[in-house]
Amino acid sequence: MKKLMLPFFLLMVQYSFGQQVFQLTPPLLKYQSIFYDNKALLEIKFDQPGAEVRYTMNGNEPTEKDLLYTKPVVISGKRIRVKAKSIGKGFLPSGTATVEFFKTGKAIRKIEFSTPNPKYPGNGVGTLHDNIGGQMDLSSGTWLGYDTDTVTVTIQLKEKGSIKGVLVDILQNESNWIFLPEQVLLYYYDDTRNAYVPAGKEVFSSERPAPKQCSAQELIPNQKIHTDNLKLVFCPVKKIPGWHPGKDNHAWLFIDEIKVY
Amino acid sequence: MNRKQFIKQSSSAAAGMLFIPSMLRNQKMDDMILGHNNKRYRINTKWSQLSFEQYPVKDCHEMVQDKLGRIILLTNETKNNVIIYDKSGKLITTWGHEYPGAHGLTLFNENGDDVLFICDNSRHQVSKTTVDGRVLMTLDYPKEIGLYTKAEEYVPTETAIARNGDIYVTDGYGKDFIIQYDYKGNYIRHFGGRGDGDKYLMNAHGICVDYRDKNRPCLVVSSRQQNAFKRFTLDGVYIDTIPLPGAWVCRPVIKGEYLYAAVLQTQARQGEQSGFVTILDKNFNVVSNLAGSQPKYTNNTPDEMYQTIKVFQYPHDVCIDDEENLYVAQWNSGHVYPYKLQPV
């Protein structure tokens, strides 16, 4: 029913005024990275006479009563989701542009990862903990791209500590065959057993199309963990589902940053 | 629900709604004007008066106007590859069933007669025809340059014809070379080719000959993936690059003092139906973006450009008629017929 509302509204407006009403495009969100030590700066671009940008930082859908964008927004705090819309008289409001920012977590000594496809090598050995990430452009040079069946990442922290969550930034860009993995498994290294021990997993479904986005996923351990050594195992989609033009082909997995909290 | 029922239901529902949106009615809504500065237009999305059942289109790739004032559309629908309209959107005639990859359409007045050049992506060929479709010449893949081993590597997207009849073909979906022939189709030279250096091209999608500076005519070539036009002399020497950040520019079309181009999509919103139309003055400064951001310059370079209004999906070409009206043909946009825009 919700899906019917927009075309219906369009029709209603068109019949009332005898002219076509168009929808605005969501504003462009510009930032260096969605990860930061102290603060990040968000610039919002939308230069259309008669229209303005309204945004929220509390997760709500922006309305014309929300914050009016006038100058770059300073982002601080652990995890901030910004949503912005273009709104203007005589236009239908745009869809919502969303970005989520993350403060850096525990100090990381080293992250090792499976060899990516040579076309998407990221930006060097530190690529998963350089605080640079969250650009939707898959050729931005920050993404590690994989078209293999499994991808393993080991994380060495600088100090032992209790682990509340492990966050990984994953690109969803299904028109370019880049999907969330089927699942991600979390392990921690148990010194007493000299082995990695399962500590949680996330399962994702690709049965329905998803919008293009940076999808930061936080794995919460299913037990109390005190460690300096973690492992993530990703299982990329091996067969793209039937609704997609690339049906039955191997999907890609793109990751660009890992944070431990 | 079939189409007839849908229309019936929605119009009766809409009639009922006439009394409801009083809040909306209080707003004074002027006609929406697209564009900036002295290049502003009113849009008519219902210009084409064709029935889709009778005259279907797939991608509407390119349009030109002939000397009789008729608007000629090229589509890769083989039921009617060429649709000829009058300026009011009424059908004059159609022809063509043999161009499954019909992509580029260029008109040249050859000693008083209009001729067409059609680039076909699927046939890997360029065909020169009369305006009613009789084939006059065919150019196959350029074996003679030794850089192609088979026809499939050559995917021509556009031609431009110089006043002396020289033919320039851009291999925009192949190896990005520009191949220059004389009017008889004899190979002269090639230049460009895929690469990101100055004189190379990334998706040489379109080309035109620019005679606005009488003393220095040049070629303007799209390097679409690089969001730029590149200029070359008529004998293929690189001149300079005109950066158009954010804009996937299709072919340049020159009319009077201005250069017009469909922008297939916004760099920051790829795959999201984010196209618009851009207009540059004779100094290659952007003066107007139709359904796009207001042109602004920082240090002589345009600021990043992007779609602002969802008027177009994937505009693929523009045609400017003898009365300065603009027509926009679109690729992969739900089989829509061209839109017409009138200057205000």
UniProtKB/TrEMBL annotation, chain A:
Pfam families: Fn3_assoc. Residues 1-18 form the signal peptide. It comes from Paraflavisolibacter caeni. The lineage of its organism: Bacteria, Pseudomonadati, Bacteroidota, Chitinophagia, Chitinophagales. This is Chitobiase/beta-hexosaminidase C-terminal domain-containing protein. Keywords: Signal.
UniProtKB/TrEMBL annotation, chain B:
Pfam families: DUF5128 (PF17170). Keywords: Glycoprotein, Signal. The keyword Glycoprotein applies. GO terms for cellular component: extracellular region. InterPro entries: 6-blade_b-propeller_TolB-like. It comes from the Bacteria. PANTHER family: PEPTIDYL-GLYCINE ALPHA-AMIDATING MONOOXYGENASE. This is 6-bladed beta-propeller. It comes from Paraflavisolibacter caeni. The lineage of its organism: Bacteria, Pseudomonadati, Bacteroidota, Chitinophagia, Chitinophagales.
